[in-house]
Design goal:
single chain, 408 residues, alpha/beta, Lyase, Ornithine Decarboxylase, Chain A, domain 1, TIM Barrel, 2 domains, 8-stranded parallel β-barrel, 22 strands, elongated, binds pyridoxal-5'-phosphate
Length: 408
Amino acid sequence: MIRHSAAAAFGRHRGMLAVGGVDVARLAERVGTTPFFAYDRSLLDARIARLRSSLPPDVELSYAVKANPMPAVVQHLSHLVDSFDVASVGELRTALDTPLRPDRITFAGPGKTDPALTQAVAADVTVVLESENEVPRLAAIGDRLGLRPRVAVRVNPDFEVKGTGVRLGGGSQQFGVDAERVPALIRRITETGIELLGLHVFAGSQTLHSERLCEVQRRTVDLLLRLADDIPVPVRYLNLGGGFGIPYVDRDAPLDLDAVAANLSELLATRLRSRLPEARVALELGRYIVGECGVYVTRVVDRKVSRGTTLLVTDGGLHHQLAASGNFGQVIRRNFPLAVANRIDSAPTETVDVVGCLCTTLDVLGRGVRLPHTGPGDLIVLFQAGAYGLTASPTAFLSHPPPAEILL
Ligand SMILES: Cc1ncc(COP(=O)(O)O)c(C=O)c1O
């Protein structure tokens, strides 16, 4: 019996969970080792199709590569989204290897070094300014290369909406330029001859409440329209951010995408299109696109009982999937969905703790989990592992080998 909606998205084969139609036992043989991450391209396709069918047709989708920078995933998505947002030269390189045009890549993130800015200008990607100080540096780089840098300004909004998951805008921030300083910055950009494409707001991440996302969108549009009045050239790009969350723990209800899309449609029709008809309007999404499309598979190495608690010790752990251990963004640790992948239909018979192989009590993948009888050799699968898994985990901790990643 499949108990988690996360598991239901994946297929089954021979009584096992299947990714891309291949059961996990065979996948483990194919990979040659555990643990590994497996991503399902048909689920990526379905997720993008769902977004496209719900969102207004003239809203572009930008994939935030940070959520999952595996080159094969980024290549696959390059055929499905309109643009990429990268946050490092490593991600930039991965994005530039895809067929997507460089002018469809934005390079955001604080602390961009001169070599990083130089690479971006030379590659013809759009630099998202996170600080006023990037303007003279970009101008000097442009002069030296004989190229005209292209920028968008990331605005740190003058509002913050409570309860929106991870807050990345409002108040004092290392991200973007405070809204009240943006008009002066725009004057400087145009004076230096840098090409100004438009504006970007990214107010928060992992929001499951549609009403709050709608409010963020309304306030973002208000702010951008206000700022656009100070831009002496046509605004050609408006990035409204994203923040669409996915359910990780039992009490999480999925985001009401249609409600968010309806709100966006209305904002476009009643506010944006008449005022800024030339602007491409983009949403920037990471985990909503990839998060539910991937699993982390780890093998049980030991089964032991400690003072009445049965523990399944696996060859994986928080060094690969930190978020599932509760140490990446959770205040109170709650279990991510997990199952015995090679016995996905078996009814639970016992309550166990699933732990990793690291020497820290933080390395818990599931506490008090109801599972069928499980022992060494069995495969545990953790769902919702497609985003911020491998690259958001301390892989060097304890010097275990890195896990494999495959796209099916
Ligand atoms: C600027 C920016 N864009 C996009 C994202 C992606 O967020 P998510 O993966 O939650 O959609 C983030 C997350 O931190 C971000 O800071």
